[in-house]
Structures are given as structure tokens and as C-alpha cells.
Amino acid sequence: xxxxxxxxxLAGGTHGPRALxxxxxxxxxxxxxxxxDRAGPLPSGGPDTVARAVRDACHPLLPDHGTGPxxxxxxxxxxxxAGAADPADPHCAAHLHCxxxxxxxxxxxxxxxxxxxxxxxxQAPAASTLETLTSRALAALVYxxxxxxxxxxxxxxxxxxxxxxxxxREAAPAPGRPHTGPxxxxxxxxxxxxxxxxxxxxxxxxxxTLPTPNGILTxxxxxxCLANLTGHTGPVLLAATAGTTNSxxxxxxxxxxxxxxxxxxxxxxxxxYGGALLFSDTHxxxxxxxxxxxxxxxxxxxxxxxxxxxGLLAVPDPSALAALTHQADYLNADDDTEAGLPDLLHRSLRxxxxxxILKIAVTLKALGRRGLGELVDRTLAAAQTLxxxxxDHPRYELHSRPTLTTVLFRPKGADDTTLATIRRTLLTDxxxxxxxxxxxxxxWLKATLLNPHTRTGDLTTLLKLVEGHIPR
Length: 472
Known about the structure:
Elements: H1 16-38, H2 46-58, H3 69-82, E1 92-93, H4 102-114, H5 125-142, E2 150-154, H6 157-170, E3 184-188, H7 193-201, E4 208-210, H8 219-228, E5 236-241, H9 253-263, E6 266-270, E7 295-299, E8 311-315, H10 329-332, H11 334-338, H12 357-392, E9 396-398, E10 406-411, H13 416-429, E11 433-439, E12 442-448, H14 456-467
Parallel strand pairs: 1-11, 3-4, 3-5, 5-6, 6-7
Antiparallel strand pairs: 2-8, 7-8, 9-10, 10-12, 11-12
Helix pairs in contact: 1-3, 2-3, 4-12, 5-12, 6-7, 8-9, 12-14
Organism: Streptomyces siderophoricus
Cofactor: pyridoxal 5'-phosphate
Keywords: Aminotransferase, Decarboxylase, Lyase, Pyridoxal phosphate, Transferase
């Protein structure tokens, strides 16, 4: 059987790989030339310049007669690479935006080519089993003492947090304590914005947001708040954070778990950032208390080096997921389920789902827990090195020693306007991508290190780039 022309050939089947091979050569070449043209962590010139380059490459985007697959692929992949913020560059350090492993990226290509959809077994026979095995293995890291822990695959921390709030809203009340009121969420000012947004989406009351002047929840403040909710007739959910977006801080998990138990509240821990410490023999003790949560959000497209998306929501028992049960005759008919076909529809609020589990499973099997733990250790060590460089530099001040891989710093004496201008200038020049964090002590530049291969010289250069824009 002959292979159809490159533009209409399919990626699957026995002939798909043959059709893909020359196209992949073009993609790899275009990724290389695009990165060479960019020559840094992001394109220079700012939004207008980048938008103009994209428009020029696309025009006309829908011609009457196409340019052909090779030309279109080469042009647009090159343009995307040249105009990308590249998290593999050690000076691209603004966000929890990781450089993915080449291994995981290659696995993701296979997932795209096969295109299983994890909403029914007959669309994803092998992928559904792989997802079950892998998600349970990761859940066992979170809940090592649980008999049958489980995890749902999500698009990231935001979806995981939303699912956690939904499960808390739908959870059966404790014996003798019927719920007549709505779920009340208690969180810190350090909580991810998705906690508040999810409460809004689910029609819940505005979360009670407690002050976190030192970046973490204070047990005394939480105790007072929960004690004041004694008369609340609905369930209460305490949402804690293991790795805040602003600074990477970790709430006192054990103390908060004690308080949740004492006051009869559920506990959710957003460990989208810090959960990867579970891989590390050196740093996993920072997550002591995590296993006492009713739900835990994880996200391996942060300190897991996976292409987006790679989130999970872990629970200690699969019965906790009963509220997600849903039936659609064309996907999980009762007689099919009774006959032994796995029911996948209760594994997500989404219907069509790509097999994001494949890249995760390949990475886990290839590197093992200790291999991933070494990458975690190396990245946390780089953050400590950057903190050392800042403390030793006469023109900088350090906000605090890093807990994870986020380092907050600023030039001594710089006001907020100066800091914001320095950051935007570095962005516009294409020299560095730094974030910003507002704390009770003002605005800070934020370096979020996620490249495990970052060297001390890269960090020294980053500080020199910032220093070159400090007003004299």
C-alpha cells in the first residue's frame, strides 16, 4: 500500500511512521534554526515585534491553494521557535514553566500519533491500563500507608484544585453531623488563585482568606478561624499549600493536619509545585504531613520536566471519587460495564482526554524515583547557589532563603517602579525572563529555577544582566 502525500498522510497505522519521518526531520531543523535566530531566552523587540513576525509568516493563513506541507511546517515551526520563551535557557526563569525532558517529549509524540481518547476503553485499550497503573503508583508516593490510593490525571494544578473542591462539596457528611449549609473554604493569602476561582465556578461562598505575612499559614490563625466556624452548618475545607507560586514556601502541613482533625474539617493540599520533593530522599521530609490530606494536587509539568499537561489529583481511597460517577450510554453503557469493559468516564470531568500518562510513565520507568530525585536535588541546589550569590553581592538584597527553587531578590534601594521597569526592559531586549512577586515588604524580582542543568556561571550572568539596568 502506497503512503498518501505528506499533507494528507495519517500518523497512525503501519505506514504512519514512514510518513512522519521526513516531517520530523523538518521539525527538528526548524526548531534548531528558530532557536538560533532567537539567540536567547525569548525574542527581542517586545509584543508588537513578535506579533508582526508571526503575522508575516502566517499570511495568508488560509489560502485558496496551500503552500505544501514541508514549506508550511518549516515556516511556522521556525517562527514559533524563534518567537518562543524557551524554558531550557537558564535565563528564562520567571514562571513554573519547565523545560521538558527530550525523553518525555518523544513519548508525547507517540501519544499524539496514536491519539487514544481516554473517555472509553474501546478508544484507548492499552492507554487506559497504563493510566491506571501509573496514577496509582504516583498516588502511593503521596499515601504510602494507604491500602488502595488512587489519582486522577488532570491538566494541572488548577484543574486538580477545582476537583478537590468539588469532591469536598459532594463528600458525605460524618455520622451525626448532617450538612445543611454550603461548603466553606479556608485558605491563606498565599493560596493559588485557582482556589478562589474554583469556589466561584462551583457556586460556593467566597473563601475565608487568612493573612500570611511570612508567606505561610500560621497555625494559631487557622485555629482561631476554624474555632469561629463551630456554628457553621456546612462542611469546612482547609486548603493548604506545599510550594507557593510567589516564593515556593510550604505551609506547616503537620500542624494544619492536626487542626483539621481537631475541628472536623477536610484538608486539601495544593502540592502542584512542591509535590515533586516526594522523589527526593534528601528533601521529601519537607512534605511530612502530606499523606494526612483528603486530596493532594500534583503537577509534573513543573518539577517533573514533562511537556504540558501533566497534573494529578491524589486521594487515599478510590471511594473518594464516587461523586464523579456519570453514565453516558455511548461511552459506558451498563451492560458493557457489567461485561467487563472498564468505565473511564468517572476518571475526569473532561470527556475527550489525550494520553498524557504515556510521557509520565516513560519518564518514571526510565529514570526511576531516584533519578527524578537527583534532578530535583540538583535544581534545589541551584536555587541555593543563586541565593548565595545574591547575599554576597553588594548591590542586591535577598528576600529569604529559598524553600524550593524560587528566589526573590532586588537591587538595594530600588523602588517598585524601577523594579518593574528593569524586568520589562530585560523582556523587551530578549535578555532574560524574570517574574515579579508582591510581598508585605514590597515588589521583588522572582527567579524560578527549573532547569536541572543550570550552572553557577549562568546564574552569575543573570545577575549581571539585571545589574546592567540598575540606575546609577
